[in-house]
Amino acid sequence: MTGQEQGRRDELAVALARVRGRIAAACAAAGRDAAQVRLLPVTKTFPARDVSLLVDLGLLDAAEARDSEAATKAAEVASLRPVAAVRWHMVGRLQRNKCRSVARWAAQVQSVDSQRLVEALDRAARSATDAGQRQATLGVLVQASLDGDPSRGGCPLPELEALADRVAAASPQLRLEGVMAVVPLGMDPGVAFAQLDAATQRLRRSHPDAVELSAGMSGDLEQAIAHGSTCVRVGTALLGDRPLISR
């Protein structure tokens, strides 16, 4: 490991300890066990080398928002850390024409927000399995829209249970695992997470195994944990400011 890599590893270790401390404190304040909350690093725009250093620090999950970036990065990390069983998560808006690629690298898709997307993912997962490109079922979180604005992505709350039903009725290649949401800009996180918690509880009455609630990011993870989040998606607080990239 070069001196530059060691410096970056030390930087990540300090940030990781800080984020874990925040999670532990939030869980204590909410009367929850910190083991109930998973830290999901959001590694979009950061290099595969950073993901590999996080693996060295014990984090075996990584979240990406773009298929084109994630597919390449997953292959790079597999080359850098061939023994590590890294679980990749799709958290960005997903177009149906990207499902075939995503089904090859993702362990979980957290941004499923329409029945047409469920159908496309189902076909893609079955195709990838038949081709020997994946061995496990594809985990699915239905994404809830907390303001009903379709331009932001997510399923309106009144339609969330029907969408979950569709995932559960798909082929055995898909597995309904829970709910995800992003707090809209300008919306009070406490109000948003309270609405999300209530919607998630309703959904779990029909789907008791859909126990994951992916909510909370760098700026609002404490409020999310107070409202039942089991997975916080952290980018900036863990990896730093995102590098500028050209499009």
Explain this structure to me?
By secondary structure, the chain is α/β, with parallel strands linked by helices. Helices cover 45% and strands 17% of the residues. It has a single domain, classed as TIM Barrel, CATH 3.20.20. Strands 2, 3, 4, 5, 6, 7 and 8 form a 7-stranded parallel β-sheet that branches. Strands 1-9 form a two-stranded parallel sheet. Helix 7 (189-206) links the parallel strand 7 (174-181) and strand 8. Helix 2 (48-56) packs across helix 3 (67-80), helix 3 (67-80) packs parallel to helix 4 and helix 4 crosses helix 5 (115-130). The model has no long low-confidence stretch (mean pLDDT 95).
Brief rundown of the structure:
45% of the residues lie in helices and 17% in strands. It contains nine helices and nine strands.
Which terms would index this structure?
two-stranded parallel sheet, 247 residues, TIM Barrel, 7-stranded parallel beta sheet, 9 helices, 45% helix, alpha/beta
- Secondary structural class: alpha/beta
How big a fraction of the residues is strand? 15-25%
Distance linking N and C termini: 31 Å
Low-confidence stretches: none
CATH H-level homologous superfamily name: Alanine racemase
Rough shape? Answer: globular
Quantity of strands, as a count: 9
What is the CATH architecture term?
Alpha-Beta Barrel
CATH domain class name: Alpha Beta
Q: What pattern of helices and strands is seen along the backbone?
A: HEHEHEHEHEEHEHEHEH
List the total number of helices: 9
Question: What does the oligomeric state look like here?
Answer: single chain
CATH fold assignment: TIM Barrel
